[in-house]
Design a protein that fits this description.
With 130 residues, this protein is an alpha+beta fold. It has one domain: Electron Transport, Fmn-binding Protein, Chain A (Pnp Oxidase, Chain A, Roll). It contains four helices and seven strands, in the order αββββαββααβ. The protein is globular, with a radius of gyration of 16 Å.
């Protein structure tokens, strides 16, 4: 029992460390976008996310445990995104059913990524231009 507890604590430390590093560094490149979400009082919050292009549409996924940006985007779906250096206004649309399955199958995560992120559930949103 002691060994299992130690293994679980080490695993939790790996997940927390990886998630904290990603949140702190927010690596950006040509396959990312900057999403600006807003609180109820209008306070803006920026987050760098991986951009998923599927069937001519832009998607982002909540695939980490920290997902405040996702909750804000669902609560206040009018957002801004900077894609390839161009900022625009978008409406966040939750993705479900067949569309979710299609995006998931075109942008799967490997076991290693899922392991270091602690196997969080994955949710997608589509960014529709306004």
């Amino acid at each position: 029992m002691k060994i299992l507890t130690i293994v679980l604590l080490v695993y939790a430390a790996i997940v927390i460390g990886f998630e904290s590093l990603i949140g702190f560094v927010q690596p950006a490149n040509q396959s990312t976008l900057k999403l600006t979400t807003f609180d109820a009082d209008g306070t803006a919050h920026d987050r760098v996310l991986s951009r998923l292009d599927t069937d001519g549409k832009v998607y982002v996924s909540a695939n980490h445990w920290p997902r405040a940006w996702y909750r804000r985007a669902l609560a206040h779906p009018d957002v801004q995104a900077t894609i390839d250096g161009t900022q625009g206004n978008y409406r966040v649309v939750p993705v479900e059913g067949a569309e979710h399955d299609r995006v998931e199958s075109q942008h799967p995560h490997g076991l290693a990524f899922r392991f270091v992120t602690g196997f969080p559930p994955r949710y997608f949103v589509r960014l529709d231009p306004r």
